[in-house]
């Protein structure tokens, strides 16, 4: 059973949010064919239908828009079935010194026992199989919640905290500029957290950049799918532009010019694909591309809002998140991206817009941008099947 997060504050948009969350859960769990997902105004349900609980729980913990979830057993409404179920559950959980209580609720008033009688009956059935267990009314280790509803009976005993945030897609679409570095995947994660449906834009300059660098960007994107489902990956051919800049502009301005092209092309892709914002991994620092002057010169090519989720974070704070979301180890793989290869030794830390525009005028900007756009490749990246999940699935089939 899934409890929604911040959604409750969203008034009449509520059903739109819930349906989006439902589709995201379906998408992330699509590797498990037996699973069914339902969602109504108050809560959602993920029917395991025999799928192992653990990997599904791990996946649910990551999906934005879920505040908490509980494993719940759905049972027939009869006392022997309920007794058997609570006995099985408590035998499974039991260790020496464990305390418990049964807390029943009956919304179906035709059921043969009322909630007090149910507590007693089910409680004593636990003592039949575990004579040494202790009942405790105040803060027991395990509270078995039993609910008798019109359609069925439900038992649960645990609540797992979810990721919070907003369901991915409820805030609209944004284009994430993803390199192979540490920062941009973290920026993407933070945008996803607030409901932005990201599409990834990655600039590749073969043969200067290797297939490994491209795969790295795709692997990073795959890591981001666990928070809300599939992501479109857009690869932009960038070789011609980098060669042109290298040939015609002064060394010190290579970086600024390169970044302006990236920004401009991303903005055109955004426009064509119905995006509202651009997201990047810029962070304010000592590196040339990351001074305020530099940001201004790069940003000058567009009026589109550019969101920089990690702009004020320290490197260590960013790394912390990168490790948590498991992108760090991919990001530090030694595949050079296009910027590293064409990077000048001494880029301008305070590029003047006037100079930038003057150097840019030596290039056929429109032609270069148009050719890059004509060569983009879009692929869909789906949630990964983790090693554990596959093992469990196979175990289950055998
Ligand atoms: P990152 O760790 O994300 O690479 P960084 O700290 O290395 O960031 P820069 O290399 O200056 O910073 O890049 C700034 C931002 O520009 C990146 O975070 C990313 O959003 C974008 N960017 C850089 N290179 C590429 C690329 N090849 N494809 C797409 N976006 C890129
Ligand atoms: Mg980088």
TrEMBL record:
InterPro entries with a match to the protein in the record: Rossmann-like_a/b/a_fold, ThiI_AANH, ThiI_fer, ThiI_N, THUMP_dom, THUMP_ThiI, tRNA_STrfase, tRNA_sulfurtransferase_ThiI
Top-level EC class as recorded in UniProt: transferase
Main subcellular location: cytoplasm
Catalytic activity: [ThiI sulfur-carrier protein]-S-sulfanyl-L-cysteine + a uridine in tRNA + 2 reduced [2Fe-2S]-[ferredoxin] + ATP + H(+) = [ThiI sulfur-carrier protein]-L-cysteine + a 4-thiouridine in tRNA + 2 oxidized [2Fe-2S]-[ferredoxin] + AMP + diphosphate; [ThiS sulfur-carrier protein]-C-terminal Gly-Gly-AMP + S-sulfanyl-L-cysteinyl-[cysteine desulfurase] + AH2 = [ThiS sulfur-carrier protein]-C-terminal-Gly-aminoethanethioate + L-cysteinyl-[cysteine desulfurase] + A + AMP + 2 H(+)
Keywords: ATP-binding, Cytoplasm, Nucleotide-binding, RNA-binding, Thiamine biosynthesis, Transferase, tRNA-binding
Residues of the THUMP domain: 54-159
Pathway: Cofactor biosynthesis; thiamine diphosphate biosynthesis
Role summary: Catalyzes the ATP-dependent transfer of a sulfur to tRNA to produce 4-thiouridine in position 8 of tRNAs, which functions as a near-UV photosensor. Also catalyzes the transfer of sulfur to the sulfur carrier protein ThiS, forming ThiS-thiocarboxylate. This is a step in the synthesis of thiazole, in the thiamine biosynthesis pathway. The sulfur is donated as persulfide by IscS.
Protein name in the entry: Probable tRNA sulfurtransferase
């Amino acid at each position: 059973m899934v409890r929604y997060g911040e959604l409750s504050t969203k008034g009449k948009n509520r059903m739109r949010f819930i349906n989006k969350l439902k589709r995201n859960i379906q998408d992330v769990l699509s590797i498990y064919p037996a699973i069914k997902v339902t969602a109504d105004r108050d809560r959602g349900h993920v029917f395991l239908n025999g799928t192992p609980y653990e990997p599904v729980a791990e996946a649910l913990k990551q999906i934005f828009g879920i505040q908490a979830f509980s494993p719940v057993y759905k049972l027939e409404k009869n006392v022997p079935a309920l007794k058997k179920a609570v006995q099985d559950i408590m035998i499974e959980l039991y260790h020496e010194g464990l305390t418990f209580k049964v807390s029943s609720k009956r919304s179906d008033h035709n059921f043969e026992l009322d909630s007090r009688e149910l507590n007693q009956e089910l409680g004593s059935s636990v003592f039949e199989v575990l004579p040494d267990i202790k009942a405790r009314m105040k803060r027991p280790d395990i509270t078995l919640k039993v609910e008798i509803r019109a359609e069925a009976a439900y038992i649960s005993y645990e609540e797992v905290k979810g990721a919070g945030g907003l369901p991915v897609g409820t805030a609209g679409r944004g284009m994430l500029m993803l390199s192979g570095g540490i920062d941009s995947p973290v920026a993407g994660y933070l945008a996803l957290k607030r409901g932005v449906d990201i599409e990834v834009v990655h600039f590749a300059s073969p043969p200067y950049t290797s297939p490994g660098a491209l795969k790295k960007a795709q692997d990073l994107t795959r890591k981001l799918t666990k928070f809300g489902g599939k992501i479109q990956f857009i690869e932009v051919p960038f070789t011609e532009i980098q060669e042109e800049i290298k040939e015609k502009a002064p060394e010190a301005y290579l970086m600024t010019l390169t970044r302006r092209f990236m920004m401009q092309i991303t903005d055109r892709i955004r426009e064509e694909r119905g995006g509202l914002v651009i997201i990047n991994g810029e962070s304010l620092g000592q590196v040339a591309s990351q001074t305020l002057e530099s940001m201004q010169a790069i940003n000058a090519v567009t009026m589109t809002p550019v969101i920089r989720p990690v702009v004020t974070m320290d490197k260590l704070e960013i790394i912390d998140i990168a490790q948590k979301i498991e992108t760090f180890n991919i990001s530090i793989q030694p595949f050079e991206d296009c910027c590293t290869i064409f990077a000048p030794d001494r880029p301008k830390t305070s590029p003047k817009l006037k100079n930038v525009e003057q150097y840019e005028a030596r290039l056929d900007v429109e032609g270069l941008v148009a050719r890059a756009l004509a060569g983009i490749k879009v692929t869909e990246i789906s949630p990964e099947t983790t090693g554990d999940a596959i093992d469990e699935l196979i175990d289950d089939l055998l």
